[in-house]
Amino acid sequence: MLTLDKLLIEQDDFRLCADLTLKQGSCTAILGPSGAGKSTLLTTLAGFLNPTSGRLLWDGEDIMAMAPGLRPLSILFQDQNLFPHLSVAQNLGLGISPRPRLSATDHARIAKALDRVGLSGMGARKPGSLSGGQQGRVALARCLLRAKPLLLLDEPFAALGPALKADMLALVAEIADEQGTTVIMVSHDPNDAKALCSETVLLADGVAQPPRPTDDLLADPPPALAAYLGR
Ligand SMILES: Nc1ncnc2c1ncn2[C@@H]1O[C@H](COP(=O)(O)OP(=O)(O)OP(=O)(O)O)[C@@H](O)[C@H]1O
Q1: What is the pLDDT of residues 23-78, one digit of tens each?
Q2: CB 95 within 8 A of CB 142
Q3: Average pLDDT over residues 203-214
Q4: How far is it, in rounded angstroms, from Cα 94 to Cα 91?
Q5: Which of the listed CATH numbers 3.40.50.300, 3.30.450.20, 3.40.50.261, 3.40.50.1820 matches domain 20-49+65-72+150-230?
Q6: First and final CA of the chain: distance in angstroms?
Q7: What distance in angstroms lies between residue 30's CA and the mean position of ligand 1's atoms?
Q8: Fewer beta carbons below 10 Å: N end or C end of the chain?
Q9: Per-residue pLDDT reduced to its tens digit, 90-124
């Protein structure tokens, strides 16, 4: 269970309060107008930004004092964060260990992860020689290898066409299901929320509201969400 306990995030004159709980293994979308603080919230969960006050608990343990790399989570951004000078396999190796030299076991795990995301045999390629969709798969494979219990997605597939994006969301759902991962996904597209997330947190007017069933929220959106959806 992930608990945002009276979290207050402030940046200059921006303020966001979050007091809510996400169930283990759940998949939650974060929807809200531009500038509402969706990315800021993920950045705070990931440990790159300190909140002004409040606690962040994973399974009852306060993880706020943990450095980003030690938190029980992986984060996937739109730009995928792949190192261009490293091969796909080396990029994936960084998900397992910071050592430059990988063991035979590491190589076997990397090959299996590549296979899982449909990129068998592409380990020697450089990210620049892959399509955007393939790069997304590599980044997802790296999260798979890290095998952290929490996966944060900040619009990672926004640049992909609708069919590819749907494929990637389906793959995330499958992998999260297999690993029992708790997923939090920022998106601008309510259809993404519907496709992947049974629950949605609405961010508006400085508040992250407790999660509600996505279908209910979209069928009867509160005014801030209705305005955002153009209804
Ligand atoms: N480094 C920063 N310093 C000060 N304010 C910031 C900083 N980064 C973001 N903000 C402000 O925080 C607020 C939330 O920004 P954020 O990027 O989290 O919103 P968002 O909901 O993800 O928006 P979008 O949907 O447009 O990506 C905005 O008002 C933004 O101007």
Answers
A1: 999 999 999 998 999 999 999 999 999 999 999 999 999 999 999 989 999 998 87
A2: yes
A3: 96
A4: 5
A5: 3.40.50.300
A6: 34
A7: 14
A8: C
A9: 999 988 877 778 889 999 999 999 998 889 999 99
